[in-house]
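Input set for joint prediction.
Command: fold jointly, output tokens.
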Amino acid sequence: MFGINDPGIWMAYLLTFACFVFSIGYGIVFWNKDKSKNDQKHQEK
Amino acid sequence: MSTLVLGIIVIIYIFILAWLGWLGYKQTKNSSDYLLGDRKINPMIMALSYGATFISTSAIVGFGGVAATFGMGIQWLCALNMFMGVIIAFIFFGGKTRQLGAKHDARTFPQLMGSHYDSPLIKRICAAVIFIGMPIYAAVVMKGGAVFIEQVFSMDMDVALLIFTVIVAIYVISGGIKGVLYTDALQGIIMFISLLFILIWFYKSMDMGFIEANRNLTNIAHLVPDHLRELGHQGWTAMPVTGSPQWYTLVTSLIMGVGIGCLAQPQLVVRFMMVENDKQLNRGILIGCLFIFFTVGSIYHVGALSNLFFLKTEGMIASELVKDIDRIIPLYIDKAMPDWFGVIFMLCMLSASMSTLSAQFHTMGAAFGADAFPKLGRSKNPNSTIAIRIGVTLFIVISYTICYTLNASVIARGTALFMGVCAATFLPVYFCSLYCKWVTKEGALASICTGAFASIFAMLFLHKAEASAIGLCRALTGQDVLIESYPWPMIDPLLFALPLSVAAIIIVSLATKKTAK
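tokens >
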């Protein structure tokens, strides 16, 4: 994978790319979500 | 590029830093502002500051050189920096830390721990660990910056170090955390652009793609020097032989030490307490990961691939060309990048060092003025920042002095060392303060003391790299380390100290649970 034979190395690259993609997805989905505010509202209810 | 032009650009850069420091000074009204920016810091600035503090010259020059010498195994560090240092840290530690900090009105990491466990002693011990460990880490970062300035300006190392330290001192002492954060944000942007450019330029100048370059690097594995092969080196796109000395250094010191240690670094933990709500932290994940991906990821990748460049232009691999690991990346920049880029990279290096150093100086000053001597200078004004400012100045002088005693090739190791100590000492208590209500004050105290003592003992008597350099074990026992049979001298102190620290918090908390009730 990625032109690298050793899984010990390409897995590091794979995890790096996975974190990159996850951070973009997470950042976009939760950009305006405030868990602490929701918890507070829930407690008030 | 002439020294005159370089000098002018650096002076402009320093003026901008001074202006940002002044901005921080103007907006700092009390000690809460000075320590936490009144908990209302913009998420973009917080995340850039988090990343810029994370990535020092150690990450660029030190670990970049490690990548050039030992290969792409160091990419695990980038993966763990993103996974542990940003994703896990922000999602599982960030929000809870922010809430806990606000609940206890804690302004520093020792205050957070001391207030949560209701123990002034815990607060003082945490501050003491910061006093002892952080000046060494700061000295290592200073050395990285000074080595680069020395090379670029052909300047005397002592002068480079002095100028560099004075500039950081001015904006940290005057501007407080706001001065630190504003300058960090600017420095983070400079680092992001320049390291991304290095990556793009490598592929453009070598006329290769990602996979082709990796394959070419695989194909030169036979050029690994014999002395590195004996240590377990199998090529730049392969992990070292499992259980070899190089494997132990890479896995236990660099990857685990930094990868786990980054979770419990006091100067990073306080950044979670600077934002207003969890929304800001969610945004920080995106910005933080992008930042590390394009900065750390780029330089580690190019570091390993620099062997292809040196082979093509100089006829030999990087570690054959330069013996000092810390000088490989500066040489690569000098030889491979366009002339005009030298000045951008110089700003990048200055930024990397200054952003990390400023956070360290601020953390040490806070530990001194707010944790160890909270009454100093506050008899008339309880919000006075004078004690913290005195602390910052004191630790700048101490770090500066330590920097003179450091040998070559210590940059990467010094960073891993400090992060390892942080992990063993702070991680169990920090984690338990957020997730384990059953942990007692006595358990926390036992864990901190065990972690700190075990780390220091392992460095002095078990881990060869530090023990032989310090020489205390040889002076007392006549041998470099207490256990000489392989692999014990190669195993990082973290692997002894962290399990002991975890065991201490569990056992002592269970034993003292009834008493606590």
